[in-house]
Design goal:
This protein is α+β, with helices and mostly antiparallel strands. It has helices spanning 41-44, 46-56, 88-96, 98-101, 109-112, 181-184, 232-242; strands at residues 2-6, 10-15, 18-21, 62-63, 80-82, 115-117, 122-123, 129-131, 138-140, 142-148, 164-172, 174-175, 191-199, 210-215, 218-224, 250-252, 260-261, 267-272, 276-284. It is globular and about 55 Å long. 45% of the residues are buried.
């Protein structure tokens, strides 16, 4: 199933016909009181919501995809975990270009580990990216993104995919400079997730997905997830060995070679096999 959030926090199932409005399926969610949970309620109760959505689908109103405003598929991730330099050719380009590494010590992922992005940086594709510090280089980075479906701690690689709710496309927008990664990658709108969540029963093998990003029609990055240094299962195992992962937590798997600057007025179009494509506009913040 392809689930999207759209317009005023409505819920949709995406098919070739368009977006089927199944917002009433959200009635399957339990009520939570203060203190609120440290997980995303929709993802934590995805099975119940899906069942309700399937029952509503035959009579749900259908809206053309280009008529809706797409939000992030996950509203409230407890964490956004990100993988640095997880493609060998990207590591090579980072080390070769001073305007990317800025003198920072760049290690391959086995030594660098993972890092966190602020959840306040999260937007959907229709919100676009609002650039700040435009006197510095701001780059696009496209990557496969994992959405965790159930609580995970010290998960073995062999079992890791059982903990996945689904997948989406992620854009990890980055200000270049000498500061720590998480600082430069966490401004508002610098984490774009979309266009929807493809559930793991539909996308069963994330290891061979071709993907790309164009800027104003020019291809900038093009790769396949089979080039990942640490694959999806390995990343879940690594992350869960340091953090407890909760439903709705997001893991961005890393970007390939070809990162390059974006500026206000640009239009990015990111595509991925098994998921789809999303268009994201860039503006001044």
């Amino acid at each position: 199933m392809r689930l999207c959030r759209f317009d005023d926090n409505r819920l949709g199932v995406v098919t070739d016909a368009g977006v089927h409005d199944v917002t009433d399926a959200l009635r399957a969610l339990p009520a939570y009181t203060y203190p609120l949970p440290n997980f995303d309620p929709l993802i934590a109760n995805l099975a119940a919501v899906r069942k309700a959505a399937e029952e509503l689908l035959p009579r749900a109103p259908v809206i053309a995809l280009d008529k809706v405003r797409l939000l992030s598929p996950v509203a409230n991730p407890g964490k956004v975990v990100a993988a640095p330099v997880n493609y060998k050719k990207h590591l090579e380009e980072v080390l070769a270009q001073k305007e990317i590494h800025h003198g920072n010590l760049i290690n391959e992922i086995h030594r660098a580990g993972l890092f966190l992005k602020a959840t306040s940086s999260l937007v959907g594709p229709s919100a676009g990216v609002a650039l700040i510090h435009t006197d510095r280089r701001n780059d696009h980075e496209v990557e496969l993104t994992i959405v965790i479906g159930k609580t995970a701690r010290n998960v073995p690689v062999a079992d890791a995919l059982k903990y996945v709710a689904g997948y989406c496309i992620g854009l990890d927008i980055t200000i270049r400079g000498p500061e720590e990664r998480s600082f430069r990658k966490s401004p508002d709108s610098y984490t774009v997730l979309g266009p929807w969540l493809v559930t793991s029963d539909e996308l069963t093998d994330p290891s061979r997905l071709g993907f790309s990003i164009t800027v104003n029609g020019e291809t900038r990055q093009e790769a396949n997830t089979d080039d990942l240094v640490l694959g999806v299962a390995e990343l879940i195992a690594l992350a869960s060995s340091f953090y407890t992962l909760h439903p709705g937590d997001v893991i961005m798997t890393g970007t390939p070679q070809g990162v390059s600057p974006i500026k206000a007025g640009d239009i990015m179009r990111a595509s991925m096999d098994g998921i789809g494509q999303m268009e994201v506009a860039v503006r001044a913040g």
